[in-house]
Amino acid sequence: MGVAGSALAQEAAQPMQRVEITGSSIKRVAKEGALPVQTISFDTIQKAGITSAEQLLRLVSANGTGADNMTSGNNVFGADADRTSGGASFASLRGLGPNATLVLLNGRRLGNNGGSGKAVDLNSIPLAAISRVEILKDGASAIYGTDAIGGVVNFILKTDYRGLEASTTFNGTEAGGGMERRYSLLGGLGDLDSDGWNVMASVTREVNDQLASSQRDFANGYQPGRGLSPDTTGTPYANILTGAGTALGTGFRMPGDSTTYLQASLLSLQGNCDSVPGMSQYASELWTNVTPVTRTRFSCAYDYGGDYVMSFPVERTTGVSRGTFRIDDNHRIFVEVLGSRTETTAQLTPLQISTTLATGSAYPVGGPYYQNLSSYIPSFDATKPIIYKWRATPFGNRTQDVALDNYRALVAAEGTLAGKYDYKIGLSKSGSKAKVDLVDGYGYTDRIYAALGTGIINPWTGAGQSQTQQAADLIESTKFYGRLQHGRTTMTQLDGSISGEVFDLPAGAVSMAVGVDLRKETFGFAQDVDAARILLAPGNANLPQATRYVRAVYAEALVPVLKDLEVQLAVRRDNYSLIGATTNPKVAFRYQPKEWLLFRGSASKGFLAPSFAQLYAGRLSQELPNGVIDQEGCAAHPGNPDFCAIPRLDYNTGGNPNLRPETSKQGTLGIVVEPFRNFSASLDWWAINIKDRILNRTPQIVLQNWQYLQQYIVRDGATGTIDHVEAGWINAAGLKTRGVDVGLRYDGAYSGYKYAAVLDGTYMDSFKFAEFEGQPYKEQVSQFNTRDVYLRWKHSASVTVSKGNWSALLLQRYASGYNDQVPNGGKSGFPAGFDPRVHHYMKYDVSATYTGFRNTTLTVGIQNLLDEDPPFTAHNVDEVVGAGWDPRVADPRGRALSFNLKYKFF
């Protein structure tokens, strides 16, 4: 009951055998245990049309609703942006982030992503060779060490497989785009019992097509009646800027109007902004509370959010092989090799360029495309050059090829000593490499500015117009092609444990386990070219290879206090080189006073060690332009430009070697009931408090919160003015979150039919967060957020029915609504059509499976049966990917047909 109560889908009934369950190092009968473990079988994965571990985690209600997947994560903006993990996806139990979720394969660690070094890439897991997935919804630092604050996801491979089978899966959308294909081959020889050996191997090839925003009507960033419109004047048909020494001067006035304006576009003056696809009149009323709008009244805007790629084209190959050899009835050894390669083509919108006189990029007087606005603007001076803001579509989409390679090799032994003590020992080496190449849309900054200054390139091409061949050749001459950056992680691990019954108490035998975990971890990251030389290239500081050593010992005991009461005690001590040592205990109980009633609970401490990048990433020295305000200094020196309008401010960002580990205190308390045959229900309350949260803070945030972050604002001792700001990774205050997991299951048989109905849901009561010590904790549940959306309620529910060769599955996924982002922070009021709530999202999938053909399994399914569009949200892509919709909550593919054919040769 302790395992089955919250399960989405369970394996078929097995003989009562002792196994190791995620969250413990002691083998016991599978149905025992004090911890909430959800198990998802491979059969359920296949019938649900799931083709990747990322899709699988979307079915787990305890997983966060955040930017940790390929659709939303690779484009997220702001302080938490991660542009080094393209092609990767991560787990985030309880919404605590990938670093706080431990991902295991057969109970052992994998190497972290080579691009960011922050967590295990889910896409490296060979899903076709998986037997089941166990999700521990509780902290487990006392067993596994760091990363396990939010919980543990344990992928368990098939073992002792015999035969040869091939399968293929096609999943195509009704509206087009995003086609998914998967081809798998699984084979195994040898019987451990009769032959004494078994060798299993699996290889999978996946090919996913691109899905663009232009292929979905709901991806529309221009809906001003609902409070959504692009906040940019970087348009394919350039907007002309004002500036000293330029054609528009420092500002202009229109006839009969005393207001001074700061931008102009010929198409806006003509009322024709929408003559160019994706462009519209700038919706000034949404983006300022000043009337009339001096900057944008005569400007066009561009729906760049509607020009995004929703999901990138991906090609992936994964393989795993396992050889197991039985020495005798009590000992066996095995070798396991895992490898994967993911190739992703990431695309962003074209460069947005603002030209200036200083860079020599202004459009010259006498150029063939010089745009004279004198007939509209009397003060326009056609004897001076033009500066402008331009979405440089002729340069092409900014395109990056990302290659991720992951591997793990393991040699291990396990068995029984003296007939009663279980042991296991293993030596593994794992690693990950990431490479990013720029293949289009990027160019050298100085060459681009020089080319624009020639006047040969036309920034004012209308619909149906294009650049001349001379201009196209000039654009090509500015481009950069080649390696931008690369990173690599490695991990060498020696682990071992021994467990068994050690002595008897009146209520039963006491079982104990002791273990050791020794690891060497490395991470290195390098920019292969100076990103500052390439316009808008994603730059990251070099991190020469860093190495750390982890030495850990742990112990665990299962104590039968009473006949119906069992207590789990665990403690682990980890010692990190350069960081220090930490000890984390855990206590859990399982009390079953009646056959139909079970109580369970746990209390523990946890920790999360800072990552290599957080500690050691190189410091980058940069500048903040555009009149920065020193709020503290300006209040003391009103009107002094050295405090109130700083023209440029230096700041540093990058790693922080003084970071402390995050620490947590957490607990669960649950009940499982089986009031009548074939029905069970579980409720598990959980709470997590975290201190010293590690966050990446921008200099703007530091300046805005100067009251709390004085230590990061460095002032000149003589004048009191700001010398520079220390930004980057810091230990913030913390968070407090709590909620309830709900599990329902009903199964049975009637007139030859077998059926099962299952629900796995999570109610998040609270998620309070404070960025800095001294700042009050702020509630985040059901509120728009730029990183994670903490939804009040999420669930997955399924109904399966089977008879003979037929089975069917109906799956529902539900995400509750939340308060929307307020346009322009509410400064402009609320448009009449603005809905302050993002509506809930509910999606149905259905599939049917037939096994009546010899050695053949055929599954046909429809995902998103009702073709439900993502709910509207008024946010734009400046902070979260998706214009008018949110990829963290909803699936953009629409209705899709999946087809899976599996044939077993022998």
Automatic annotation (TrEMBL):
CDD domains: ligand_gated_channel (cd01347). It is a multi-pass membrane protein. Residues 377-865 form the TonB-dependent receptor-like beta-barrel domain. It is found in: Cell outer membrane. Residues 34-152 form the TonB-dependent receptor plug domain. Keywords: Cell outer membrane, Membrane, Receptor, TonB box, Transmembrane, Transmembrane beta strand, Transport. One of its GO terms (cellular component) is cell outer membrane. Pfam families: Plug, TonB_dep_Rec_b-barrel. Its main location: membrane. Belongs to the TonB-dependent receptor family. This is TonB-dependent receptor. It comes from Pseudoduganella dura.
